Amino acid sequence: MHGLLVAAILITLAVSLGLALLTAGNKAWRDGRERRRQARTSALAPLVLAYVNEELDSLGRPPHGTDRAVLESLLLDAAAQPEGRGRERAARSLDELGYVDRYLAALRSRGWWRRAEAAERLGQARAHRAAGALATAMADPVAEVGLRAARALSTLEGVSAVGPLLGLLNQPNRWATIRVADILVQRRREAASELCEAFPQLGHHGQLALLDILGAIRSVQAAPRLRQLLTEPQHPDVHTRAADALGRIGVPESGPVLVGSLGHTAWPVRAMAAKALGRIGYRPAIPELCLALRDPEWWVRADAAAALRELGPDGIDALKGVLDDADRYAAHQAAWMLEESGVVDEDVGNLAGGDPARQAAARALVEQLIGMRQVQRLRELATSHPDPRVRRALIERLSRQRRSEAAG
Amino acid sequence: MSWTDWLAAGVIGFNRAVIYYFVALNTIYLILVLLSLGRVLKFVHRTFFSDYQELRESALTWPISIVVAAHNEEKTIVETVRSLLRVSYREFEVVIVNDGSTDATLERLVELFGLRRIDRVYRKSLRTLPVRGIYDSPEHRNLIVVDKHRGGKADALNAGINVSRYPLFASIDADSIIEENALLRLVKPFLERPAETVAAGGIVRIVNGCAVRDGRVERIELPNRALPVLQAVEYLRAFLTGRVGWSAVRSLLVISGAFGVYRKREVIEVGGYSNDTDTEDLELVVRLHRHLRKAKRRYRVVFVPDPVCWTEVPDTLRVLMRQRTRWHRGLVQTLWANRGMLFHPRYGAVGLFAFPYFVLFEMLGPFVEILGYLAVVLAYLLGILNLDMFLLFVVLAVLYGIFLSVAAVLLEELSFRRYPHWLDLFKLLAFGVLENLGYRQLLSLFKIKGFWDLLRRRRAWGAMERAGFRSATPAPRFERTAGR
User: Fold this and answer.
1) CB-facing half-sphere around the CA of B425: CA atoms within 13 A
2) Residue B305: helix, strand or coil by DSSP?
């Protein structure tokens, strides 16, 4: 036992010392590497700039050591420029100096992260000759690699079909959806018709992801198909996402079908339809949105109130009209929306005088809010409003209310 | 046999048990260190940091509510809110819950952010004490302040959850600063596996000694005082080797209350945070595990080592003691309340490994340690102490603790390298040694005090004295914002 303890102590001491030395050594090595990198970047950046601006014919022989990584970073930055001769020269140089061959070799690496990085770099390097390899990489068993290859290809404008991308959507992975959407947004060719055609072939997750993508890329071409989906018997999630997409796309022709969806049996669909109507600014929906304020589901009421707020003066008038509603939940939502949008502050300002009609409307609004006991904002205004006449009027009215409550 | 013989036999038996306990505990630590080493290095080398820009810009990234419970935080609340309003995220809201502060916390917020009181309607999914008022800011449309009666942190967080609008919420301490991209990094697991991920935690680092300006940590340095540096090493070990390791085996029981993201639906399902314990963060995560395992739902609770939350740690022993006694009380309360999970196969790895570990080693560990010292004294008095063996054992125990601390510092240096200065690295290594020569033993005493408080039914946070963040430049004059 004694010997065992001594051995354990010595081993632990040696390992601890070793780790401490490794820590210090690693830091020293990294600091040194970083200093070298910074020095070489300062030295090479002007050369790269001169080359990109056609002041230099070539960057010389393929670099080694620190220069290889530094030059790679500088050239990739130059190749990432929106357009121009400089970008092309940087891309050509990356090929001539052997970087593209390295990336192509890394596309066959055993480590998926190396393959993914290689795909990404090929896109950044604008390596058009890598289009074939990238198309193959889109079918990589690791989704991460496929997505990066797809994005690289979209950068190279080498994608002629969205099929391989759509296969990636069937996984319940929102991150994949986001990246496919990003790729499709960047495509110059409108892919909406292909996406709509692919819809029936996808699984449930894929269909939902596709609808999100159509909304994200704001595909006006897809709007008719989305409206049609809302009228077909589909899973409620599909209807919800279709309504959301229509709201994001924003064409007024979607208004009637969204109004119809306010009567859907599933509350997420009703809520999303209300939200979408606000987004597209569909004023004819105002009566139905007022009815939706009395929906039994909280989120439907909240989204309907928010939508009314977005529908301009008509929507604001509609919210004011709901303040007297028998359904107190509807009335409270309306009051909150009027406060949040600043309408209460604005109308209360008319208490000071001026137009008699506006003054009367302001008094009526104050009475309604007091009747509903939604007085937090009024109390605040009674102490903070810049006009002393407004403050007096509010204080007097609120005091009367307190007296009558105390008496009652 | 005489009573001294019995006592001697007992002491010898206990000492043997302590040796087995020591071997078991440190074997687990070693496994966690090795697991963590692999996971952290994999994370660093295989994460594409360009992804975060895509997440930030995409309209499909889920929006998030940031919920902060604040009680008497007048010194730090403004910096905290400023840093939160600047987080790099496409759609989010900040919900500050003023939990019955008796200082100027609310007044500072009202003045500096131009808050106005409104009659906001919200859904009371969780029961809380009454809300006195809700404020919004015309200038910062995504800032909401909830003023309520004092109900404790759990109650305040529940009120914040009620008022929040989005499907995810982040729970952040009022004395914390999160880095600009931290939220993106912590939300990514939810997007990668949206059906399964219910909670994710990030790493907490100490802000003591760092220079903060406009809600951003501008310069990272370790403090000059010893106590916060000791805690810096402790946090590195706890997060980089402990939590990463437990997350790797799907048994993470704790997400720091200072910085965690949750899916609101599941938190509401389990009834939100509870005031029944002194560590509402630990208790919530354990309850989530219990509920979801019982329902046989596929889920995951993950730890992401990259997103950083900077927080102020106690720099006096008195405040440290209050904090650690409270943590240990909370641990015991949580484990007791969920004791049905112990060794129960229904709860999988959580019930069979993580929970027993926390009971045997985290909860009972301080007692074993202190009783071990007492047993040594007894052994000496009984004349049965083998002094050589005892000293060797103590040396080994201290050295092993040093090994764990140095391993954590190495992991930090290989991965995130947040402390760029050589002086800070030497401080970490030096205090990684010193930590085992009194500090950890002191923490054990605090934990025992926590247990004693529990037995005496004493529960209180105590005053958490704050020094405030160290300013990078002379403090600017505060100006009134528009609207007030």
Assistant:
1) 23
2) strand
**B389/A384 touch (CB, cutoff 8 Å), yes or no:** no
pLDDT, one tens digit per residue, over A235-278 is 999 999 999 999 999 999 999 999 999 999 999 999 999 999 99
Beta bridge partners of B135: B117, B145
* CB contact at 8 A, B432 and B408: yes
- Give the closest residue to B186 by CA, choosing from B289, B83, B82, B52: B52
CB–CB of A182 and B407 under 8 A?
no
Give the closest residue to B215 by CA, choosing from B256, B257, B247, B172: B172
The runs of H, that is alpha helices, within B47-170 are: 51-57, 77-85, 105-113, 153-163
Supply the DSSP symbol for B141: T
Measured between alpha carbons, how far is B418 from B426 in angstroms, rounded to an integer?
A: 14
Number of CB pairs < 8 Å for A and B? Answer: 128
Q: What is the DSSP letter of B483?
A: T
**Residue whose structure tokens are 């399902």:** B269
- What is the C-alpha to C-alpha distance for residues B144 and B382, in angstroms, rounded to an integer? 66
Residue range A9-24, pLDDT digits in tens: 999 999 999 999 999 9
Element (H, E) at B400: helix B387-414
Tokens representing B17 are 């048990």
Distance from CA of B22 to the nearest CA of A (A): 13
Hey, are the CB atoms on B60 and A333 less than 8 Å from each other? no
The DSSP 8-state label assigned to residue B202 in this structure reads: E
Find all residues with CB under 8 Å of B331, minimum gap 6, and list them.
B279, B282, B358, B362, B363
The 8-class DSSP code of residue A360 comes to H
Cβ partners under 8 Å of residue B233, min gap 6? B405, B408, B409, B428, B431, B432, B435
On the 0-12 / 13-18 / 19+ scale of CB atoms within 10 A, B345 is exposed
Whole-model pTM over 0.80 = yes
Residue type, B254: V
